[in-house]
Amino acid sequence: AWEGADSEAATALFTDDATYRNDIYQEPNRGSAGVAEYWSSVTSSQTDVTVRMGEPYLDGNRAVVEFWANMTVEGAPVTLGGALLLRFDDNGSCRSLHEYYAFTDESAEPPPEWGT
Fold this sequence. Notes:
With 116 residues, the protein is α+β, with helices and mostly antiparallel strands. The protein has helices spanning 7-11, 31-43; strands at residues 14-21, 29-30, 46-53, 57-59, 62-73, 76-88, 94-104. Strands 1, 2, 3, 4, 5, 6 and 7 form a seven-stranded mixed β-sheet that branches. The protein contains two helices and seven strands; from the N terminus they run H-E-E-H-E-E-E-E-E.
């Protein structure tokens, strides 16, 4: 969904009443409409996106996973590394997501211990 800038595919991963908190200091995006709006907005300036996911840590209906994304934003290389805290419903759809991340204005590779 991210690499293809496909907000419809991203939205399909979430419950209808999901919360998606991309910035811990802001209110979360709420529901399918909020997720779709966020994904459409955030991916609109991204091209050449490559996303890697680390090995998830699972505990019941919760998961934590590192992500590493290299992309071009408005013509410049950017790397975004971070972690996702997720909670799922009984059907495997995401009920809530919190992102924690850091940007760098260059194309960077993850450190050797990343993702494990």
